[in-house]
Amino acid sequence: MSNQAIATPQAASKSERYRERERALWDHYGLAPTERSIEIASPQVRLRVVEVGSGEPILFVPGTAGVGPSWGALVAQLAGYRSIMLDRPGWGLSEPIDFSKHEYRRVVVDVLRGVLDELGLERVHVVGASVGSNWALRLAQAEPSRVRRLVLLGAAPLSEELGPPPFFKLFVTPIGAIMVRLPSNPKQIRSILRGLGHGPSLDTGRIPDVYIDWRVAFDRLTDSMRNERDMVRTMIARGRWRPGITIPTDELRQIQAPTLFVFGTGDDAGSVDVWGRFAGHLPNGRLMVLNEGGHLPWLDDPVKVGSEVRACLGGGD
Engineered SS bond to 293: which of 89, 150, 298, 300, CB 3.0-4.6 Å? Predict the structure, then answer.
C-alpha cells in the first residue's frame, strides 16, 4: 500500500508500524490493495480509502474494529468487483469529526455522499457491518438512485426492537474511557472475539494469528477506539438509543434496494426472529442465517458468505 504524508515523526512511526501489520494480513489473504486519502467538504475531513480489484464498485462501511484488511477474507471471494474499503471518520487512519455537532442520521449520509462524490462514483453496491450497516441503510434511504444493492453483515443499531448492547452501554461510561486507553494483547482480542460469537472459528483456526496481531496493532497504534467511544456517546442516552439512530418500520418500507442481511446464530445481539422481522420490513429484503457464525460472519465462513454476497450483488438490474 502507498504511504501518506503524516504530520510528525512519532505519528509517522506509529502509522507505518500499523501499516506493516495491515500488509501482513493482506498478504495472508493474497491481496494487494492500493490506498489513498480523500478530503470531503461537509463535514470537512480527510478520510482513507483502500481498494482491491476492478469492476462494479462496492463500498464497504465498517463497524467497530473493521477497517481495511478485516474485510480481506470476504474481499478475496469477490474477484471481478472493485472493493472500496472506507476508514470511517476517526477510524483507522482517517481524521475524526465531532459527532456531537451533527445530527447522526444526517451526518453519516453526508460523509458517504462526500466519499462517492470524491471518488467519482454515481452508483455503487454498499456492504455494511455492525454500525456500518446503519450508515449503509441511511445512504440508501437518502440517496436511493446511488445505491444498487445492499449487504448488511451482523447485528447493528437498526431495529426498534433492540436497545444498545451491553458493551456499548459500558463503552460510554467512565469505565469505557479507561478501557480505550489500556493496551490490548492477543489474549484480550481472542476473548473479545469469543464474546462476539467467534469461539468455534478461533478453535478451528479459521481466524488466523495474523488477524489477531493486526487487531492488537489497530488498538495500540491508532486512536480508533477513543474516537469510536466519542461517536457512540452521541448515539446513546440513559442506556437507550437516541432518537434517529434505529430506523423505524415505516422508513424501512421505503428502502427499495435489494438487501441481504446475514446473521450468525452466535451473535447475541438479537435473534433469528428479530432479524427475520427486520428483513421482512424491507420491500426487497432477505435474511441469511449462518449457523454458529458470529458478529462478523464472513470470518467464520468466507466462502459461504461470499457466495451469498455475490448472488445478491449479481442479481442484475
Answer: 300
